[in-house]
Amino acid sequence: MTKDLVEHIDRLIRQRPASEPALTPFRELALLMAEAKPGVEPVVLEKEVVRIKKNEGFPLFPREDLPLDLGAASALLKRFLEHLSSIDRNDRHGLKKALEKTEAADEWSMALFKAILSQDEKGLSLLAQDVDLDHKVLHFLGQTAMTPSIHALRDAVKASLDREAWDYGYCPLCGSQPDMAFFARTGRRYLHCGLCGEEWAFSRIRCPFCDNRDQESLGYFEAEGEEGFRVYFCRRCSRYIKTIDKKAFEEAAPMELENLATIHLDLLAGENNFR
Q: Which of 93, 185, 196, 274 has the most CB atoms in a 10 Å sphere around its CB?
């Protein structure tokens, strides 16, 4: 999978050179991710419990209780920090301080993972301040370090998920909000989980964040000259979601890469006062 990810990165950079600054650093992390071998504990999900959770709108797991191999994630985080602190970056000093924290005690990495999974923004900010790093950088590195374990869990429970029948604006696996959406070649809209990468069908005329279905307060805009990309927004909650129409592309990239390659759309959304 990671090999495919690297191939997609290389293809996107060739096709969209403007994405290179965002994708090249992630390519280096993806190569390190290929070496990660997270353990997967047997996950026993009773069919009746799964049925009840689906019917009542509960994800399979609360995100703060995901059964992940955080030991493997901690080891991968160290690899990330070793690599990034060895190259010429403006935040190199902070990365070195974070590396020292991870080498001194596993508790620091575990506190980072806990803050990310529990969406503790204050705790994450304190950890970032302690090592002189931007909290967004630390969040990205911590979540990416957990990604192999998260994907292993997703593969282990995929038989218990029904991506076509889940009708909520949050992930059926972990309950997280979507970070992107896409239109399949069939025309149906799918949301992409910002944490685990699960994808599920969702109504076209509907805000995934506040469930607004009023067409008058829902809309979208496009970046000039970029076919296949839209930013859908909701005036009621002022949220937005970047959306890709896969019919516009001969070969679509994984959504986590498209999220990185379309950072300019986040900037456009911010300029229009959407968050």
A: 196
* CA–CA distance, 116 with 101 (Å, rounded to integer): 17
CA distance 194 to 255: 10
* Main-chain phi, psi angles of 17, to 5 degrees: -55, -25
Closest of 195, 144, 153 to residue 27, by C-alpha: 144
Indicate if 136 and 182 belong to the same structural domain: no
> Do both 188 and 249 map to the same domain?
yes
Whether residue 80 is contained in a domain is answered as: yes
Q: Which of 125, 160, 195 is the last residue of a domain?
A: 160
What letter represents residue 227's amino acid?
E
**Does 31 map to a domain?**
no
Assess whether 50 and 85 both reside in one domain: yes
- What pTM, to 2 d.p., does this model score? 0.95
* Predicted confidence pLDDT, tens digits, the chain (275 residues): 566 899 999 999 999 999 999 999 999 999 999 888 898 777 889 999 999 999 999 999 999 999 999 999 999 999 999 999 999 999 999 999 999 999 999 999 999 999 999 999 999 999 999 999 999 999 999 999 999 999 999 999 999 999 999 999 999 999 999 999 999 999 999 999 999 999 999 999 999 999 999 999 999 999 888 899 999 999 999 999 999 999 999 888 999 999 999 999 999 999 999 99
Domain hosting 138: range is 36-160
